[in-house]
Amino acid sequence: xxxxxxxxxxxxxxxxxxxxxxxxxxxxxxxxxxxxxxxxxxxxxxxxxxxxxxxxxxxxxxxxxxxxxxxxxxxxxxxxxxxxxxxxxxxxxxxxxxxxxxxxxxxxxxxxxxxxxxxxxxxxxxxxxxxxxxxxxxxxxxxxxxxxxxxxxxxxxxxxxxxxxxxxxxxxxxxxxxx
Length: 179
Hints:
Radius of gyration: 15 Å
Low-confidence stretches: none
Structural class: alpha/beta
Distance between the termini: 6 Å
Largest sheet: 6 strands, parallel
Shape: globular
Number of strands: 6
Order of helices and strands: EHEHEHEHEHEH
Strand order of the largest sheet: 2-1-3-4-5-6
């Protein structure tokens, strides 16, 4: 990794626990910074977007890479829409479809409509063919709309601890490609 690149971890709802691949990435590189939200269980879109903006204030955005999971990906897309920021790149793993009724069923409100504008920086969307939070076809639409490279890793669930993604060397390799 280049010493000048700053990596920020952007977890989804519930944060990423001790066995999650995002935490694994942080353990391997203590220079990675996790974006901490005030409320992990009942996310508020504006608060999450503003927290991301505040965390990056003062950073040279040309040297920032964001590593997001699930709702963190949608947060980044809303952040781009609101603030128009350009960064070095982003690894966007398992972005959920914010337009589905499942969001309301889980008490996640305000993240729809799903942002479908091109991201102004290089990005990789990592997707699973068997994710309860979106369909394979929708991942393809999201990646195309965002201008992201799409990496389909097969039937991998939501690419989280529950799906068996703790230590995830292949994900780390994708991140290295952005750095």
